[in-house]
């Protein structure tokens, strides 16, 4: 089990178990109604039940991924991503899929429009988390750790971003717009799972290479970007909230101003009414006097007493308001119902806007008066809308906001300063209930106010936080690169060192070998595959004359001007095929001389069999070759002179026969014719002469026979030695019988030979064996046996034997050991035998002891 495996199990196991436990705790909290488990503290948002379930599942998925239960983590990852995707779809499409409270009613709400729904950030994080699990579950070979790493970074950023927002109280960071907030525990859970995902991806990456994974900077950048975006968006949100609040405050202020003015008039109406009720129906002059004081007639058109028949009776101020005198308010449906309401409720009531008889737009507020049980008409004020609004908004307030007043949603009054640009997108409303009328004040801030309120902070923050994210990623990348370089460098250094040590060792080895190699006189040359010399021993220096430093690096056959017996290509082919080559080469030495070397080439290979170099050992055989050639020449010379000699002997003995015969016959003739006339001394002399001539004749005959062996020999043919011996015995029949000899023979082989010479050979040897017998009758034994490539013949007798001093001599022509009187003969027999045997490519010799018999051996090639 590799180390990365173990680490992956630890990371996946710990992070997965933690996350699962956290998810489970929240789910239990929901089931058992333990708010502390669901939202940590009351001020925090609760973690949605679905989010808790997804976190629990993701934890199990991580565990499975750590233990390489790919199928489990794949399934769970898909489920988690699906949960996230469904919730995201709810937000994006603005639909309610009914899943928010499917498993658990959200009884712990923190004011939200979407009860029970997990935060948008959580949904996104779950998609990333689930996808990371799915991606990591793919088969090892197709894994790319970058993707799960990136997804993990997104999860981390969302989790850590939310944790940060809780830490700095910037809750807006945990959500988008006015969506639900992410719970603190959810953020914590996401952070834990992200550590698991990134850790696992890291380990997966590590299985490929060492060191931090190459995608780590991308991951850092991604996390930085997401955190920056989340916090930037949070700052933006906060700023928007600030602007909203400011504009809203303005709207509220103005609404209050407006309401205050109206309420003041209402209080006047109340006072007048109460006075009427306490004192009874007043006199008109008194009432008109009283009615002058409480009202602000800059926007109150008039105060009036409306009699129970709904006709305006008394009018203050009277001047300019003649049109209202005796006005029948019952004619106006809206006003009549307002008055009826006021009477029924016994409270002041505001009418809706209407056009006054004088043409302006306005409304009235009326209060019924009940001096006793019976109603006695109404105290009413007619308000002028425009002056009211102008007085309420303009003189006192310095506002530059655009104003709109709405009654029941209908625009009734609008005010915009000329030359001011307004931003209606930021408008705010404030509603007031004014004696039954629903008025709303809407304000739109001028653009410059918005600009004043919006700082560049979020943008600056975004840039300032993105920049470090990129810088950090860059730094990590650089650090990583330098670390990688460092590692590579260190590895390369180590390798180099090992190589140096190895090379030194090899060189030392080589040096020792070279010392050994220097001991030999052979030249030993090592050449690389390009033929360049890499080693040149002392033998080579001596043989060729170049020093080692001159020879190294040169191409062998160029330096030595090698002449090959075969082409260089053929030689190389042979080396490739068989790994070795042997043959003779001609080299030129430094001094220019040519030498012949016996050359052996062997290919050196490494352990894998890849050829490394070629070892060439050259042995100078120039001298030997010369000697061999001399010898050959001598042999040829000798053969030639031998042949000449033979020819001479033959010619001489042949030609000498005739004159000799003449000398002999005429001497005999002389002896016969003049025997009586010569004295005994002369006769003796003639006998000597005749004898000499005869002897000479015999010698010459023998010589002729001898020379014929070489000059008149026949072609070799298969010859049955057994038959040949029988013929020889038949020829010698008389001698054998005379000497009482017996010739025994073993089976003899058939050999390639000249049959008549074979006969001559065997006959001579058998004749000698019979002739040189001792006291005993001679048993002669002829045998043959195979010995290596030859047949070894033996002719054995038990005769007189030959002293070892003479055993060589007897094979020489005319050499005898005995006088003619003892044993007849001329001494040519064995010489002929020798010549015959040699002509057949064999050898002849004798093994004998004087007086102990002899054995003549000869060989004939089989
Ligand atoms: P020759 O028989 O005419 O004397 P050879 O050449 O046949 O001549 O023999 C040479 C000599 O070798 C003989 O004179 C004899 O002394 C000796 N010799 C040859 N054969 C034998 C043998 N079988 N035993 C003893 N001596 C022998």
Written description of the protein model:
With 862 residues, the protein is of the alpha+beta class. It contains 23 helices and 22 strands. Strands 1, 2, 3, 4, 5 and 6 form a six-stranded antiparallel beta sheet that branches. It has a five-stranded antiparallel beta sheet with strand order 12-11-15-14-13, with helices on both faces. Strand 7 and strand 8 (410-415) form a beta hairpin. Helix 5 (120-136) packs antiparallel against helix 6. The longest helix is centred in the first third of the chain and has 64 residues, at 216-279. The radius of gyration is 71 Å and the shape is rod-shaped. The structure holds adenosine-5'-diphosphate (ADP). The site of adenosine-5'-diphosphate (ADP) has 19 residues, from helix 22 and helix 23.
Please outline the helices and strands.
Elements: H1 3-32, H2 35-39, H3 49-66, H4 70-93, H5 120-136, H6 146-168, H7 184-206, H8 216-279, H9 284-292, E1 300-306, E2 312-316, H10 333-345, E3 349-350, E4 354-355, E5 361-368, E6 378-384, H11 385-393, E7 402-407, E8 410-415, E9 428-434, E10 437-444, H12 447-453, H13 457-519, E11 523-528, E12 533-536, H14 538-544, H15 548-551, H16 556-559, H17 568-578, E13 580-588, E14 594-605, E15 611-620, H18 622-673, H19 680-711, E16 717-720, H20 721-731, H21 733-739, E17 742-745, E18 750-753, H22 755-771, E19 779-787, E20 790-796, H23 829-839, E21 844-848, E22 854-861
Parallel strand pairs: 17-19
Antiparallel strand pairs: 1-2, 1-6, 3-5, 4-5, 5-6, 7-8, 7-10, 9-10, 11-12, 11-15, 13-14, 14-15, 16-18, 19-20, 20-22, 21-22
């Amino acid at each position: 089990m590799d180390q990365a495996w173990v680490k992956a199990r630890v990371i996946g196991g710990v992070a997965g178990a933690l996350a699962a436990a956290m998810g489970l705790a929240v789910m239990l909290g929901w089931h058992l109604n333990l708010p502390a488990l669901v939202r940590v503290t009351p001020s925090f948002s609760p973690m949605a039940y679905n989010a808790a379930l997804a976190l629990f599942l993701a934890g199990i998925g991580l565990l499975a991924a750590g233990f390489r239960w790919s199928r489990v983590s794949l399934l769970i990852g898909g489920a988690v991503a699906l949960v996230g995707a469904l919730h995201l779809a709810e937000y994006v499409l603005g639909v309610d899929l009914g899943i928010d409270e499917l498993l658990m009613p959200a009884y712990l709400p923190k004011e939200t429009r979407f009860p029970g729904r997990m935060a948008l950030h959580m949904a996104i994080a779950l998609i990333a988390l689930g996808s990371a699990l799915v991606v990591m579950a793919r088969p090892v070979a197709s894994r790319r750790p970058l993707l799960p790493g990136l997804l993990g970074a997104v999860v981390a950023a969302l989790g850590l971003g939310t944790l940060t927002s809780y830490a700095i109280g910037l809750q807006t960071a945990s959500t988008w717009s006015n969506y639900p907030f992410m719970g603190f525990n959810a953020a914590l859970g996401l952070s834990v799972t992200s550590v698991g995902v990134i850790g696992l991806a890291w380990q997966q990456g590590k299985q490929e290479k060492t060191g931090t994974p190459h995608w780590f900077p991308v991951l850092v950048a991604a996390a930085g970007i997401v955190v920056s975006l989340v916090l930037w968006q949070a700052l933006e949100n906060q700023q928007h909230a600030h602007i909203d609040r400011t504009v809203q405050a303005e709207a509220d202020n103005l609404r209050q101003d407006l309401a205050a003015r109206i309420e003041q008039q209402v209080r006047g109406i109340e006072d007048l009414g109460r006075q009427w009720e306490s004192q009874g129906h007043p006199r008109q002059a008194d009432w008109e006097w009283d009615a002058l004081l409480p009202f602000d007639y800059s926007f109150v058109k008039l105060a009036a007493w409306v009699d129970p028949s709904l006709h305006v009776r008394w009018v203050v101020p009277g001047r300019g308001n003649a049109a209202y005198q005796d006005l029948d308010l019952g004619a106006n449906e809206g006003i009549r119902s307002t008055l009826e309401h006021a009477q029924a409720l016994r409270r002041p009531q505001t009418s809706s806007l209407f056009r006054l008889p004088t043409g302006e737009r306005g409304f009235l507020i009326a209060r019924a008066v009940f001096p006793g049980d019976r109603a006695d008409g109404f105290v009413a004020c007619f308000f002028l809308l425009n002056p009211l609004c102008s007085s309420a908004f303009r003189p006192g307030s310095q506002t530059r906001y655009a104003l709109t007043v709405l009654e029941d949603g209908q625009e009734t009054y609008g005010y915009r300063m000329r030359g001011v640009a307004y931003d209606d997108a930021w408008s705010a409303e404030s509603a007031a209930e004014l004696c039954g009328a629903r008025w709303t004040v809407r304000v739109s801030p001028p653009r410059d106010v918005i600009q004043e309120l919006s700082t560049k902070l979020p943008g600056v923050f975004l840039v300032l936080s993105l920049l470090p994210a990129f810088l950090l990623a860059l730094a990590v990348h650089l650090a990583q690169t330098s670390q990688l370089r460092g590692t590579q460098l260190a590895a390369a250094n180590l390798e180099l060192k090992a190589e140096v040590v190895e090379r030194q060792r090899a060189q030392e080895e080589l040096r020792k070998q070279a010392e050994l190699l220097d001991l030999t006189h052979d030249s030993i040359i090592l050449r690389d595959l390009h033929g360049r010399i890499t080693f040149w021993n002392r033998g080579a220096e001596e043989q060729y004359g170049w020093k080692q430093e001159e020879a190294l690096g040169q191409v062998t056959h160029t330096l030595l001007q090698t002449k090959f017996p075969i082409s260089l290509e053929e030689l190389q082919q042979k080396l490739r095929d068989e790994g070795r080559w042997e043959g003779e080469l001609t080299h030129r030495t430094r001094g220019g001389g040519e030498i012949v070397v016996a050359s052996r080439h062997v290919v050196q290979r490494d352990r894998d069999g890849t050829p490394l170099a070629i070892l060439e050992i050259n042995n100078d055989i120039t001298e030997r070759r010369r000697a061999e050639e001399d010898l050959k020449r001598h042999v040829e010379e000798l053969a030639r002179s031998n042949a000449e000699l033979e020819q001479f002997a033959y010619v001489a003995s042949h030609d000498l026969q005739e004159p000799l015969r003449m000398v002999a016959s005429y001497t005999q003739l002389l002896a016969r014719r003049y025997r009586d006339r010569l004295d005994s001394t002369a006769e003796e002399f003639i006998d000597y002469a005749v004898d000499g001539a005869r002897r000479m004749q015999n010698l010459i005959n023998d010589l002729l026979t001898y020379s014929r062996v070489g000059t008149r020999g026949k072609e070799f043919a298969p010859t049955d030695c057994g038959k040949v011996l029988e013929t020889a015995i038949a020829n010698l029949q008389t001698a054998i019988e005379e000497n009482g000899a017996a010739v025994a023979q073993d089976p003899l082989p058939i050999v390639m030979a000249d049959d008549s010479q074979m006969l001559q050979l065997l006959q001579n040897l058998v004749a000698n064996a019979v002739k040189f017998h001792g006291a005993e009758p001679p048993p002669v034994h002829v045998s043959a046996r195979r010995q290596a490539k030859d047949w070894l013949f033996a002719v054995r007798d038990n005769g007189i034997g030959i002293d070892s001093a003479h055993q060589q001599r007897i094979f020489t022509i005319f050499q005898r050991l005995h006088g003619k009187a003892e044993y007849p003969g001329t001494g040519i027999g064995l010489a002929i035998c020798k010549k015959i045997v040699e002509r057949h490519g064999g050898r002849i010799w004798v093994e004998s002891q004087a007086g102990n018999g002899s054995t003549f051996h000869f060989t004939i090639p089989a």
